Amino acid sequence: MNKLSKLLLYSVFHGNLNYSSIPEESFHEIIDSCYWPILDAIKDFNFKPGIEFPVNTLNKIQKIDPLFIEELNKLIMEKKCEFVFSGKEQIVSPLVPKEINERNLNEGIKEIKRFFPKRQQIAYVHEQIFSNGLIPIYLKSKFKNLMIIYETALQTNNLNKQQNFSPTKIKSNQGELNIIWNSRYAYQKFQKYVTGQTKKHEYLDFILGNKKLEDSCFPFYGSDMEIFSYKNTVLGLNGNRHKVKRFYDILEEIQKHDELDFILPSDLMNLFPTSKAIKVCSAKYPILGKKEESVVTRWAVCGRDNSKNNSLCYQAFKKIKILNCIKPESSNRKNHYLSKLVDCWGSDYRTHTEEGKFQNFTKNIHTLNHELDKKIENSFLNSSENTKSDLVIYNPNSSNWKKIPIEIKLYFKPGFMANNFEVYNNGKKIQSQLEDIKFFKNGYIRSAMLVFTPSIPKRSQIDITLRESDNKPNSETKLKNLIKTKSVEILLGKTGGSIENIAFPTITGKPMINSTKYSRHKNPSQANLLSGQIFTVNRDGNKFDDLIETEIISEGENLPIRKKFSCSLELPFGDLTKIFYVYENIPRIDLRYIFNFKDYRPGIFRINLMNLNSNSFQTDSFSYSTNNGGNLELFSLKESVSHDKPTNSKISTTCCLGSTNCFLDVGDKNYGVTIYSNNAECYSVPMINFKKSNKIPLHIVYSMCELDDTTLTWWKGKKEISFSILGRKDSLIQTKGLCESLFLGLISKSNNPNITVKN
After folding, report:
1. N or C: which end of the chain has fewer CB atoms below 10 A?
2. pLDDT per residue as tens digits for the range 233-271
């Protein structure tokens, strides 16, 4: 007689008191009505779930109901359930810098020992949002098993379509991890059952339908505990005790079936050996979500102006790095700042965030930035004792600053600076130029943008002296839209100041960026958007762009470092100035957008930054590279990619890139184009649109706002965003290092009471 095959059910129940729309006064209710019923089920039924809470939630539970922690610990010791790790705070890892992800894991590991001394075997990926670059971070923290969503991985791999949920190995260039599959389809079925949308026999049939001829496993549940008896209109939860009863009813029913049994998630690894390693991310799906409604842009540029919120976090991150370079902090002090920033990067501040939570976030991130500003200022002042120089310039980077152009805004007291001036270090002149010079009524200089090319060893400083020059400031202007330097050729269009052509002669004779034809008689699409063009849709569904006739003005064309070109546009949603800086001796263009919004509520706000001529590259090595919360990832462009395609009528995009090191590179093994955008200035996320066609170029789109059910963005007044377009040869390593230097930049201070510096 054949042995009866078993369907082994495993689950992870996720709890989070920081859940966006749960106010603090409801925490007691959540613990009583949603968390305790799970523990009661473990005691009353042969039910062996994984239980997962971020450490910040555990701390809150400990204060409110320490008996819950005691009972959970007891059940874990009895091996009736197990604790599944996640981290200190719930964050969307592919959208935050690697250092933040490492800190979140490491601090969580340290703090969790206060609650559960035994080391956890499995890590539950926050929000079930995953990128391949995170694998080395989990390996470094000594995790071997992760839980992610099966259905999204199915998009990029030829996985068993019969839903064989046996554990699988996933790989990156830095190592392998075991994957325990969660299932979006399965947990949604469970939620529909406990909420009464599916009858008990229908749900039982669904479970039994996953049984195989041999022993197999099935993810019974892998999502929120808060679905039970908690009522919240924002989340659409109409909590009542009937949900818990239905949960208990199905557990009782499962116990009647000998072919069904519950196991701990960690038991899977012994019962079902992992198969050959696969990759779960691709050029088309570089970041995996848990469901359509959880497109990663939700936490990036939707919500209550997540572009601004994430900019504030990146500002704090930059300051922490700078502070540690100026004056290496004690480990405890450094971790103190990083820990605060981890909390501010919590995902629940970025969706349906209730008012109290959002106010706390706003207060905490502004307080952190202010504290870091004061700390940097004091540390920098103490590190500089030379009072004879006009300026002190410090390089906080871990690499030498080798004549990279840098700009510093200088303000002068009346009667101090009468003429143009030059820059000296130890008596040696440094190449420099002045831009945007403003004058007092008496003819003296009020302010100027100083652009110069210093050489500064890593983590050290130089003294700068300003010497007046007889040369008149170069302020000549004229109309011109074709710009050529030794390293760059760029042709600008009179329609919106769009980019018609860019070439980097020192890299290749082929134009890398070219124009596409545009017709106003058609709706804007990826096929006809121009390089540098704005495309936006307001909350009422009205579409706008910047494609109006304008004049391109050149200023100070004979300056030695870079040439400046600009245009001004009056648009329905506000005024826009576009400024192009074209560099003389390096293959680089800076593009700055300065908006002055009237009163604008965007649903979508994108910049089609560049149309890349894909015919100028080798198809066998054509790829893009970026960081999505971890190590650098390379994606081969061997298939069509449409990150900016709507998911449905209510969600405006399919995916985006994290670009957590502030750069994106597209090219082949010989050369490419790297885009740097400072997330600390204005946070945006890049998206790629690529068709395997010789007629349609590759589009690189940067988004400052996308539409979903959380979008509540409102802009009024001035807002700036800048991009550097860098041509590169051969390896990306050198350009990657340049982008890292540009992010930290240089720090300057004035030693002259007549001069004020704005970094």
Report:
1. N
2. 555 555 556 788 999 999 999 999 999 999 999 999 999
Q: Which residues of 355-378 are buried (b: 16+ CB within 10 A; e: fewer)?
A: eebbeebeebbeebbeebeebbee
* 486, 444: one domain: no
Residue 693 and residue 596 share a domain: yes
Q: 159-175: per-residue pLDDT in tens?
A: 655 557 999 999 887 78
Nearest CA among 212, 236, 272, 252 for reference residue 10: 272
Q: Let me know whether 121 and 268 are in one domain.
A: yes
Dig out the tokens for 696 from the structure. 């349609």
The residues, ordered by sequence, that sit 6+ positions from 729 with a Cβ below 8 Å of its Cβ are 507, 670, 671
**pLDDT of 474 over the 70 cut:** no
Q: For the whole model, what pTM was predicted? A: 0.95
Measuring CA to CA, how many Å separate 656 from each of 229, 299, 329, 457? 35, 11, 35, 36
CA quadruple 127, 131, 137, 141: dihedral sign: positive
Show Cβ contacts of residue 91 under 8 Å, excluding neighbours closer than 6 positions.
Answer: 100, 101, 104, 126, 342, 345, 346, 347
pLDDT, tens digit (0-9, with 9 covering 90-100), for 127-161: 999 999 999 999 999 999 999 999 988 877 666 55
Dihedral angle of Cα 317, 322, 325, 328, to the nearest 10 degrees: -60
Helix axes of 98-112 and 55-64: crossing angle, nearest 10 degrees: 40
CA-CA distance, 216 to 226, in Å (whole number)?
29
Any idea what the Cα angle at residue 100 is, between residues 98 and 101, rounded to 5°?
A: 65
What sign does the dihedral 119-222-147-351 (CA atoms) show?
negative
Largest CA distance in the chain: 105
DSSP tag of 434: E
What are 610-647's pLDDT values in tens digits?
999 888 888 889 999 999 999 999 999 998 999 999 99
**Straight-line distance from the first to the last Cα atom of the chain, in angstroms, rounded to the nearest whole number:** 80
CATH number at residue 664: 2.70.98.10
Report the chain's mean pLDDT, rounded to a whole number. Answer: 91
Q: Report which of 154, 178, 152, 151 is spatially closest to residue 166, judged by C-alpha positions.
A: 178
